[in-house]
Amino acid sequence: MIELTRLNHATDLNKLPVALYPYYQDYIHSPEWQAKRQERLEIDNHECKLCFSKQNLHVHHVTYTMLGNEPIKHLLTVCHSCHEIIHNRKFNSEQLY
């Protein structure tokens, strides 16, 4: 398990800009996103990369700078609880690489 307390605070790169909300909602329901999401889940063995849970999995965008054309390395499988921690700025998910 990655020790969350030793990681720095998140940057604004892992916060979705308000202007992208409508596009993001359409994108995460697209076949393109579903395929990319499935690929990341398979790479990560359908397991949260922070706590190793296999329940309630999300695929987190480490950065939104390439939303819609993001490389697979910009994605991370996390459980719901860890995803909440990431977005509450407890640490910078970019440091997981």
Instruction: State the secondary-structure class.
Output: alpha+beta
Q: Hey, roughly how much beta strand do the residues contain? A: 5-15%
List unreliable stretches of 5+ residues: 1-13
Portion in helices? 25-40%
Shape by Cα distribution: globular
Radius of gyration: 13 Å
Largest sheet: 2 strands, antiparallel
- Along the chain, the helix and strand elements come as HHEEH
Average pLDDT over all residues? 80
Across the major sheet, the strand order is 1-2
Total strand segments: 2
Euclidean distance between termini CA atoms: 14 Å
Q: Helix segment count?
A: 3
Write the layout of secondary structure elements.
Blueprint: H1 21-27, H2 31-43, E1 57-61, E2 75-79, H3 80-87
Antiparallel strand pairs: 1-2
Descriptive terms for the model:
about 100 residues, alpha+beta, two-stranded antiparallel ribbon, 3 helices, disordered N terminus
Task: Explain this structure.
The chain is an alpha+beta fold and 97 residues long. Helix content is 29%, strand content 10%. The protein has a two-stranded antiparallel ribbon. It is globular, with a radius of gyration of 13 Å. The relative contact order is 0.26. Residues 1-13 have low confidence and may be disordered.
